[in-house]
## 1
Amino acid sequence: QVQLVESGGGLVQPGGSLSLSCAASGSTLSMYVLGWFRQAPGKEREIVAAITWNLRNQFVADSVKGRFTISRDNARNTVILQMYSLKSDDTAIYYCAARPNGDNSWSHWGQGTQVTVSS
């Protein structure tokens, strides 16, 4: 089992920056891909970014490419989503998630953290 706890959400003005952190604990984390999803009001949950244990493989959604980056600190069991040039469309609940290497299903989820982009 993997436990995930997000932090760093809040209110930010358009064009601003915010960093989300996810602390992972529990099972052998090298066996998991870690990622970030978001869900805006009235919309389906969508993947934002993901990264493997060895850092060699990263995914960033087209909608945030060039503005968001994902990084992973394996020594601290933490995955970071750095967000720049935020837009009102980025307003959502952001969730940290984990899936076993080679699986298609994201099996572990954090409780989510609210990000609101508004002037």
## 2
Amino acid sequence: QVQLVESGGGLVQAGGSLRLSCSASGRTFSSWTMGWFRQAPGKERAFVAAIRWIGSNYADFVKGRFTISRDNAKNTVYLQMNSLKPEDTAVYYCAADPSGEGSWTYWGQGTQVTVSS
């Protein structure tokens, strides 16, 4: 059974930084595509970033501010968030795509990020 557990969320002032972590258990995920999504109140879940063996990609609204990385030895993926804005406030979810074809099969429970102005 695959489990994804996020951590690192919290309250931060605008301009600040947070680093989210997603720990995967149950399988070795080194070949999987891993991603981060977010859902703000009253809005649909949105793609934030993904990392695969050929590289990473980002939503336009986080380019230059957020960085996704992974440590396969620790089965962990990270999201470093800098220059945070109030509009980044959301629940952030980690997701795994074993196929690498955009099928996000596994999801974490989410971690709240709140950015105050």
